[in-house]
Amino acid sequence: MLPLLHVHHIALICSDYAVSKRFYTEVLGLRIIREVYRAERQSYKLDLALHGNYIIELFSFPEPPPRLTRPEAAGLRHLAFAVSDLAATVAWLDQHHVSSEPIRTDEFTGRRFTFIQDPDGLPVEFYES
């Protein structure tokens, strides 16, 4: 068996760096670990953490192609965060003008969840633990 320890990070490419940086830091509350501009690639790389754990690399590149379909295209389907209070999460999102889908219940676990979209349309799930 391959000795995997845990997921190290998830890399996302955004179309508008300033908008996505604000979304992931101010709306979702992720903390900036490091921000680097790579002039040779005309690209920002923003390392983000949740509760001290490095989880997301946010990249900008000149004119990235759009995501083909949502969410059934091959590749990353969605990004999911565990939350303790889904109603409070939805209220926070509403205060930040981020609309969420109606709350659903997982038929296998009985847990509630909802989806939003990041600034580039990537589905982001909030799953009540």
TrEMBL record:
Signal peptide: none annotated. Residues 6-129 form the VOC domain. This is VOC family protein. GO terms for molecular function: metal ion binding. InterPro entries: Fosfomycin_Res_Enzymes, Glyas_Bleomycin-R_OHBP_Dase, Glyas_Fos-R_dOase_dom, VOC_core, YwkD-like_dom. It holds the Pfam family Glyoxalase. PROSITE patterns: VOC. CDD domains: VOC_Bs_YwkD_like (cd08352). Gene3D superfamilies: 2,3-Dihydroxybiphenyl 1,2-Dioxygenase, domain 1. Keywords: Metal-binding. PANTHER family: FOSFOMYCIN RESISTANCE PROTEIN FOSX (PTHR36113:SF6), LYASE, PUTATIVE-RELATED-RELATED (PTHR36113).
